[in-house]
């Protein structure tokens, strides 16, 4: 089947270089890539990993504890 796909110039260039280096056609490179992506979709999905969101600082502001912070967050919001 024929279809038209628009690719960024850099990606297409990299794919063509890969194909030439591995003695493959561009079509074979694209087919192989699509098969790998689709096969990985069928396998077990990666577990969720929470992004590390630490920041520099010295902890809570002096004189505040977690219940006070919570109260300030919800102040005026019906809590």
Summary, kept brief:
The chain is an all-alpha fold. It has three helices and no strands.
How do the helices and strands line up, and which of them pair or pack?
Elements lengths: L8 H13 L4 H17 L23 H9 L5
Percent of residues in helices: 40-55%
Tally the beta strands.
0
Q: How would you characterize the largest beta sheet?
A: none
* Low-pLDDT residue intervals, each spanning 5 or more residues: none
SSE arrangement, N to C = HHH
Task: Name the average pLDDT.
Answer: 88
Count of helix runs: 3
> Regarding quaternary structure, how should these chains be classified?
single chain
Radius of gyration, in angstroms, nearest whole number: 26 Å
Cα shape: elongated
- Terminal Cα separation, in Å? 61 Å
Question: By helix and strand content, what is the structural category?
Answer: mainly alpha
- Proportion in β-strands: under 5%
């Amino acid at each position: 089947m024929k279809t038209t796909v628009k690719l960024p110039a850099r990606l297409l260039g990299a794919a063509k270089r890969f194909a030439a280096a591995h003695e493959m056609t561009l079509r074979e490179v694209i087919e192989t890539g699509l098969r790998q992506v689709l096969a990985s979709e069928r396998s077990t999905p990666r577990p969720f990993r929470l992004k590390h969101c630490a920041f520099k600082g010295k902890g809570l502001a002096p004189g505040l504890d977690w219940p006070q912070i919570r109260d300030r967050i919800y102040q005026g919001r019906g809590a």
